[in-house]
Each structure stands twice: as C-alpha cells, then as structure tokens.
Amino acid sequence: MDILYNILIDPFVQMGSAPDFFLQVLWSGFVAGTLYSLIALGFVLIFKASGVFNFAQGIMVVFAALTLVGLYQAGVPAWIALFLTIGAMFALAWLVERIVLRNLVNQEEIILFMATIGLNYFLIGFGEYVFGGEPKPMIAKELGLPTGSTTFEPFGGIVIIEHLDVAAVIMAIVLVSALAIFFNKTRIGRALRAVADDHQAALSVGISLNQIWVIVWFAAGIVALATGIMWGAKSDVSFALQIVALKALPVLIIGGFTSIPGAIIGGLVIGFGEKLFEIYWGALLGSGVEGWFAYVIALIFLLFRPQGLFGEKIIERI
Amino acid sequence: MNMAVKPADANDGRANAPEVMLDISNISLSFGGVHAIKDVSFNIHKGEIRAIIGPNGAGKTSMLNVINGFYHPQVGEITFKGNTRTQMRPYVAATQGIARTFQNVALFHGMSTLDNIMSGRTLKMHKNFFWQMLRYGPAMQEEVEHRERVEEIIDFLEIQHIRRTPVGRLPYGLQKRVELARALAMEPELLLLDEPMAGMNLEEKEDMSRFILDVNDQFGTTIALIEHDMGVVMDLSTRVVVLDHGEKIADGTPAEVSSDQNVIDAYLGVAH
Ligand SMILES: Nc1ncnc2c1ncn2[C@@H]1O[C@H](COP(=O)(O)OP(=O)(O)O)[C@@H](O)[C@H]1O
Ligand SMILES: [Mg+2]
User: Fold this and answer.
1) How would residue B135 be classed by pLDDT, with cut points 50, 70 and 90?
2) Minimal Cα–Cα distance from B16 to chain A, Å?
3) Domains (ranges, CATH) in chain B?
4) Cβ contact (<8 Å) for A205 and B94?
5) Suppose B115 and one of A209, B95, B111, B247 were both cysteines; which one would form an S-S bond, judging by CB atoms 3.0 to 4.6 Å apart?
6) B60 CB under 6 A from ligand 1?
7) Mapping DSSP to helix (H, G, I), strand (E, B) and coil, where does residue A162 land?
8) What is the pLDDT of residue B175?
9) How far is the CA of B227 from the centre of ligand 2 (A)?
C-alpha cells in the first residue's frame, strides 16, 4: 500500500503543499518543451517534403552553433556572424539538394536515410576540422540575449524565472508560428503539402521539387541554428549538443512524423512530462528519469498508437 | 477594339494547313527488356481533340508520360510549340503549358477541393512568399485574383457543393472531376487526359464528355485523350491514333480507324 500511496497520492500532495515549486517545475518543463517542439519541427518539414528521416538534424544543430561561435572567435562581429551563419545554412541546404537529393530522387527511402547518415558523419568531420572539437561558450550576451533573472513570490513562496529562458520561449514561439503560417497559408506551403501527398501530381502542376527541398532544408537549418543558440547558451557549444536532437525522436513518435501541430504538442508533452516525472516520481525510480522518460512514453505510443496523436492514418480512416 | 475582325481568318491557307502543336517523332521507350513504345510518330494539331486508343498495355499511358516528362525515351524527339527536345522534364512541360490528369486519380488527399484546384495555379502566382506570409496587401490581392479564376472553374465543372470537402471523401467520379479542375486551373494549351471516364456510370460519362467538349470549345484547349469507350472516342475526337503492343497501327479520323483491319484485329484479341 505504501508504494501505491507514493505513486498515486504523495506526488500530488507535494504539488499542493508547495505550489510555488510546482510552478517552477512547470515553467522549466515548458521551456524545454518549446525547444523540443522546435527541433521536432525541423524533422517534420524534411519528412513531409521528402519522406526521409533526417539523421543529420542533430549534427546540424551543432554545426550551426559551431559556425556562429567559430566566426565570432575568428574576429567577425556577433551580428554579422549570425547572418553569415544563416547564409551557411542556406548553402548547406542548397548543397544537400544539389549533391545528394537530386541524384537520389526516386530511390528507396532507406537509401535517402543512409544518405543523411553519410551527411551526419561528413558534418561531424568537417565541423571538427574547421572549428576544432573542444567545447566553446555560446556568444549569448554578444547577440543581445538577456542574462539575470526575476523572482516572483506567488503563494508566499518563490519562483525564479531566468530571462534567458523567457527569450528561448519567445523565440521558439515566434519561429514555430512563423513556420506554421508559412507552411499553412502560403503558396510554398501548399506546394509542400502537395509534394507530401503525391509526388507525380505535384510535379504535373509545375511544383519544383528542387526548390521545395532547398526551402525545407533551409528552414530545418534555421531551426537548428535557433536551437543551437538557445541550448548552447544553457550549456556550451560542443558535439554533445546533438543529444538534444535525439529527444526529437520520441516527440515525433508522439506527435506523428508529418504533423506540425503534432510536433508542437509532442514537444510540450515530453517537456512537461519529463520534468514533472523527474521531480515528483523520480525518487521512486532512482534519479535520472529525465534521461529516459521520453523514450518510455514513445514506446508506449508505439504499442498503442503507432501513428502518433496527429499521424496521417487517423486522417485517412474515415 | 473591334472583336469581329480576326486577321488570322484573312489567311486562306490557314484552315487547310492546321498548326502542329506537338510533334512526336520516332519515340522508343523501354524498361529493361519491356518495350513500352516502339518507334511511334504522330502529331497533335492546335485546337483538336486527339484520341489515343489501344488495348491494355499498348503504351498509351507511357506516351503521356513521355509527353509531360515523367518518362525519358531512349530514342526520338518531342517538338512542342516549335521547340525540339529529346526529353521533357515535368517542370518544363508544366511551364510550357502542358497539364494532365492521371489514370489512377492523383489528388492531394489531405487537401480540400479548393486547395487542390488552387495548386494548379502554382506557376501563375508570382508574389514573393515572404509577402504572402505577412498577409501583405498585393500578395493577398494576388491570392484573391487566383481564387476568382478558380471559382470560375468550379462553376464551370459544377462542383460548387464540394468546394470545402477534403477530396479523400469524395466519390470516384467527383475526384476525377476535381482532377480535371486542377489541370484546367493551369490554363494549359495542351491537356492530357488519361482515361477520364474510366469507372464512371453512364450519366457521369455524359457529363464528363460534355465538359471535355466545352473545354475544347470555349477555352480553345488542345486535348490528348486516352479512352476505351469507342462511342465516346467517335463522338469527341477529331483524329485518333491507335497503339498496340507499343506500336502505332493506325492514325486517322474516327471513321477511318474504326474501319481499319489492323485496328479491328487488335481489338478482337481483347474482350471489350
Ligand atoms: N514504370 C514502368 N516500369 C516498367 N514497365 C512499365 C512502366 N510503365 C509502363 N510499363 C510497361 O509498359 C507497357 C505499357 O504500359 P502502359 O503505358 O501503362 O499501357 P496502357 O496505358 O496502354 O495500358 C506495359 O507492358 C507496362 O507494364
Ligand atoms: Mg494506361
């Protein structure tokens, strides 16, 4: 009975008895969740347009952040380094389309997937060669990201909100909204959905696959850069950052691989879930719940709802 | 602005020497050991309805795929509006004014009828997507203009009532009609129709026949039509090319080909 009490009742008693702390936990879950959503969105865009799971998305986060910091350390002013990095992400998108996708069009999906694994290792090698392998500090202050924190005192307790986290949330929301509007309301967005639905029909109305591919890879590159800056500002910029992108996999399994709203909600579910679980149920299971929680949730989804919350199959089952 | 004066009519020779819009010259196409098309030549005149008929597996669909660039023939040339190429690319075909429908309906299943048809306007829209995203005036204006054009097509094909319906939910006959609407939204000069009436009941076939004639008549669109129903072919087409086992076995008016012994033999081999 003790164990049931510990699982079913005690966590909620704790939440109720220290509501300020509960708010603090929710906030940190929300911050992580928005960034997970962002990173998952990068995968979704590429998956919709080319049906390929981009294994290199994680390393793109590292590569973007490294380029930014590397340029700054080489003496380029921060803001110019940022624009040059955006340019580099465009160049990467263009090269991937030219060298990889264009030549592999009509190949099996598994071959495209293998190609992204190749791209992954190329970017690791190239990044290390150019910028070196040692961790670097993110140039957060130079880019105008806020430091410091504000303390609130709700329910007679305290909640500390880091300004950097507020900036991360705002940036994620702005970027996610912009991408969602872009892909829902514009001609390019309609074209992307058309390509995702039927390749040949899309070609027949004059949609250029090459153009769509460059656009989605560029969008994924921008997302990678934004994630790299924010996550890099919390820790350091190093190849370990790519692990963040691994969290996107469970997010995608929950949200469905082809759904933009799914990526957003999946990200938030994982963000809130892993923080709440770590704090309130973690002691029962040994610590480090945050590391594996997302994958267990993903497994449960795979067993009971493999298409995810918003996956394609639901729409087609009429 | 005197619309009654048509200078072209003054040219007497014109009516006797129709303008060739598409010329297919010695096309051969094979997949590994399968010879889908063997040294086929024919042309399509501006303004005509050109039927392509033949038993299953004759190479009709492959021919349309060659014309709009899905398939690249090993031998031969394609001349469209005076430009000769050894192969088309789908994007080029679309920009040059070639639209098509598919034998197995190929719609964007997640989208509404309206969005499917709007996708046919892809090449007509020019405003920068950046402005579209900001819902900026001129870009919205452009969207509105295209919507008007699309609404005209919707009225023309009598599909107002399914405007907002996701196409996946539509019955087969209406899906074929939406596919035609999407192709028409491209305002094509050459329209390729791959069995637009397959699987339809008599009434639906009659509707579709009427639409095809009206498109040809009112918009002046040149049409290549693959069709199995000989009655429909006789009614609609100006000229007919007959394929069998990848080879051209006859070419002429509907009356000519239907009395051609090669054609009769080819069709006797197949239950119809
Ligand atoms: N993509 C392809 N790969 C291999 N064989 C094909 C392909 N497309 C068509 N064929 C072959 O070409 C021949 C002609 O097919 P098709 O053009 O579809 O005929 P039709 O439309 O007249 O029924 C058939 O033998 C078919 O199997
Ligand atoms: Mg066919």
Assistant:
1) low
2) 33
3) 19-97+188-272 (3.40.50.300), 108-187 (no CATH)
4) yes
5) B111
6) yes
7) strand
8) 94
9) 9
Q: How many domains does chain A have?
A: 1
User: Is the beta carbon of B59 within 6 A of some atom in ligand 1?
Assistant: yes
CA distance A31 to chain B (A): 26
Which stretch of DSSP H or E encloses residue B160?
Answer: none
A2 is a domain residue = no
Return mean pLDDT, chain B: 87
A38's tokens: 């962002």
Q: CATH code at A133? A: 1.10.3470
Give the residues across from B29 on adjacent strands: B37
So what's the ipTM on this one? 0.85
pLDDT of residue A29: 93
Cβ-in-10-Å burial (0-12, 13-18, 19+) of A80 comes to exposed
The answer to whether residue A7 is domain-embedded is no
Angstrom CA distances, B81 to B23, B96, B115, B221, stand at 9, 9, 30, 14
Ligand 1 atom 6 nearest Cα = B31
Is the Cβ pair A202, B168 closer than 8 Å?
no
Record the tokens describing residue A162, joined without a space.
């880091």
A10 in a structural domain: no
Smallest CA–CA distance, residue B96 to chain A, in Å, is: 10
**Angular region, B236: left φ>0, alpha ψ -120 to 50, beta rest:** alpha
- pLDDT attached to residue B127: 55
What distance in angstroms lies between residue B118's CA and the mean position of ligand 1's atoms?
30
Q: If you measure from the C-alpha of residue A13 to the centroid of ligand 2, how many angstroms do you get, rounded to a whole number?
A: 68
- Tens-place pLDDT, residues A125-170: 998 898 887 888 888 888 888 888 888 887 778 888 989 999 999 9
Give domain status of residue A3, yes or no: no
Name chain B contacts of A190, Cβ cutoff 8 Å.
Answer: 111, 115, 118-119, 122
Range of the domain at A117: 20-316
Query: What integer pLDDT is reported at residue A312 of this predicted model?
Result: 56
CB-closest option in A185, A200, A205 to B119: A205
- Residue from B214, B110, B222 nearest B168 by CA: B110
Best of B31, B108, B153 to mutate (most A CBs within 10 Å, chain A): B108
